[in-house]
Amino acid sequence: MPTASPASSKASASTSSRLIYIVAAVVALGPLSIDLYLPALPAMREHFGVDIAAVQLTLSSYLLGFSLFHLVCGPLSDRFGRRPVLAAGMSVYIVMSILCAHAESIEALIAYRFLQAMGACCAPTLGRAIVRDCYSGPAAVKALAYVSSLMAIAPVFAPSLGGFLLNYFDWQMLFYALALAGTIALLLTIFAIDESLPMAQALKPTTIAANFLTLLLHRQYMAHVLIASCIYSGAFAFLSGVSFILIEFMGVSTQLFGLYFFCIVIGYICGNLFTAKIAHSWPIAKLYPISIATAIIPAAAMILFSYLEWYRPLLFVLPVVFNTMAIGLLLPRAMGEALKPFAHMAATASAMMGFMQMALAALAGGLVGGFLHDSPMPMALVIFGGSALALMLWLCMQPRSLTDAS
Fold it and tell me: By CB distance 3.0 to 4.6 Å, which of 42, 115, 387, 390 could disulfide with 296?
């Protein structure tokens, strides 16, 4: 595990590993909220008597709420601290999870998912900010990679757990399980996380607007954020269509669905661990092209398989394994580099990054949901498009200046 920087850390070397485990457990609430209920999407469509696009809106609305509230919880945390804002977010999450279980229409479920995401987004936003408060330089990149790999344990088991619960209960039980997870995150926030805010920022509209403008005009920050967001969107394009493609199109059982999903998350964990152990010290001019190539080549293969109508689960799962591996390789470094110049407003910088990531993710998921009918091709095209945009940004944003800035 990385050790904290003496200059910036409020956690001693003896507590740094404990902090990483706790932050990872809280941050895991974000992916858990998506992955646990994926096997239930076909059942929910049948329960409400709607089409695929309507059920997909429960995912898109979640991503939209997750994206927008970043812009609120970041500045609030830079003013009032990490712990109170995180605790408030977890409280909202718990209430909305219970309301999701009691939704009587697809429209109500879509609305509750949007509000549920507003609480959930506090976890990754403030988790990144806490790591930035307590670590700096390469240690921050390593810590973020460890947090990402540890939190990926949740999506490893979440689809299998969701499938298991669906064998014995209705889909509503999945949201009760999420409420329980939110309660655990809330208890960890209250009793196991120390306040790490280095200096309170003024909570004035002009100050908040000036901070966001500073981030938008910062060339290196925007380059790292946009490249990472484009790669990241591919994973959500897959998430938005995977249950229908594997379960309905290809006849995969809910139990086997969890196994395929396990393979995908393993790719993400391997990418993060490789960055934590080795690639955190690589120059950006080496790490970014390797990561983008790891994503775009398998995505092109997925398009070919769709065109040839080779509808075999492994032919669509294995390319996504490489896509998530690319995310694990690139994202911790991109987060570390993007947040590096903004110790004085780490939560705001983290929030802006989260907003852009989730906005593109919601767009990718919406495109797949709107065009996915009887072929995986729309999903394959969106995944490839995200990787292709990342490649174009890398080529256009003067990689040398990014390297020098790091």
Answer: 387
